[in-house]
Amino acid sequence: MAVSFQQVCVKSKPGTALPRLLLVAVMFLAGFVVPSCADPADSDAAIRAFVERVNHESMNFFATGSEADARQRCRDLLAWAFDVPFMGKQVLGKAWDKATEEERKEYMEAFENEVVSAYLKRMRPKGMTLTYVGRRPPVGSDQIAASRRTVPGKPDQIWIWWMRPDGQSWRIIDLLLDGHSVVDAEIQEYANVLASNNGDINALIAFMRKRAGT
Questions:
Q1: What total of structural domains would you count in the chain?
Q2: Is residue 22 one of the residues assigned to a domain?
Q3: CA-CA distance, 128 to 150, in Å (whole number)?
Q4: Is the CB of residue 90 less than 8 Å from the CB of residue 115?
Q5: Residue 53 domain-assigned?
Q6: Strand pairing of 129-139 and 9-10?
Q7: Which of 20, 160, 176, 198 is most exposed, with minimal Cβ within 10 Å?
Q8: Is 2 part of any domain?
Q9: Does residue 1 lie in a domain region?
Q10: Which domain holds residue 18?
Q11: What separation, in Å, do the N-terminal and C-terminal C-alpha atoms of the chain show?
């Protein structure tokens, strides 16, 4: 299998690959730190609170030991913290416009299931923690913040949350893992599947369901 939500490639700001790629390079050179007083303190605090809530909820997926409960907890997190419909449409690209309403519905269900399965996989290791690192100045109206994923015995990994305003809060529209984007990875993956099946979205949906184990 090629890249997926578990194996990701580099992404820039949605629709503009180079700017985000350059930004990510600068982030890694400069390191993630809490920004200076040039940014409003209440904004810093609100963004930190949002990301720390995401971290906390993510680390509690398996609190009861029930797989069904873990999946529901993950879905609950996606519902308030992520813009899954935006991500799903972004990943499918032009094929979205060609799909029927029923195909779109089935695709979005399969997409969410894939996100849940991939997210849970990354949160399963014993002793895994997510710790808020800081944020960088916004890109337009989008905010960028980071967490450090620590798994005992393995190198730490930086998770960069790309967030878009949603009322008084934000919705995550992409996640970059050590600078590699889950959205761009799936754009390429889904495009390859569609190309191999003459653009048949039902073949893509079947592929997604198999990969998610649903």
A1: 1
A2: yes
A3: 6
A4: no
A5: yes
A6: unpaired
A7: 198
A8: no
A9: no
A10: 9-212
A11: 18
Length reported for the chain:
214
The 3-class SS string of 131-162 reads EEEEEEEEECCEEEEEEEEECCCCCCEEEEEE
Query: What is the tens place of the pLDDT at every residue in 52-70?
Result: 999 999 999 999 999 999 9
CA proximity to 171, closest of 202, 199, 140, 142: 142
Contact 131, 147 (CB under 8 A): yes
Residue type, 182: V
- 123: tokens are 């949160």
The alpha helices in 82-200, defined as continuous H runs, are 84-92, 95-98, 101-123, 182-196
pTM above 0.85, yes or no: no
Rounded to the nearest 10 degrees, how much is the dihedral formed by the CA atoms of 16, 209, 3, 58?
A: 80
pLDDT single digits (tens) 94-130: 999 999 999 999 999 999 999 999 999 999 999 999 9
Q: Are 132 and 124 in contact (CB under 8 A)?
A: no
In degrees, to the nearest 5, what angle opens at C-alpha 130 toward C-alphas 15 and 182?
25
Contacts 24+ apart (CB under 8 A), 174-178: 174/11, 174/14, 174/87, 176/8, 176/11, 176/24, 177/8
